[in-house]
Amino acid sequence: MTYALRQPSFVRLKAQLSLNGRFNHSLYDAETRQAVHVTLDIERGAGQVHVIVRMGSTLNSLGLPLGSQSNANTVADYIESIANGRLDTADETPARRRFDQAA
User: Fold this and answer.
1) What are phi and psi of 35, to 5 degrees?
2) Which sign, positive or negative, has the C-alpha torsion 28, 90, 57, 52?
3) What is the largest CA-CA distance in the chain?
């Protein structure tokens, strides 16, 4: 199974990175339509955005530079890596469709 964030969720994620708060998303497997749910806590500071990712029994965090255009793609890749079990391995992340043109 390969879980991925859908484009409407990516558009919301991109907007949410400019806010503080807790946000829920789902990643889906295209073949089986099974879902994995993730909760993101986003805290914007003076120089960075701190993202806490809760998925199942795992808790991970990520610090990103404030205002970077690639932050949404970085967070999307990060949560997909967690969902697909690639975060703590040396496995190469497969190429995925970028939603740069979205919102």
Assistant:
1) -120, 150
2) negative
3) 42
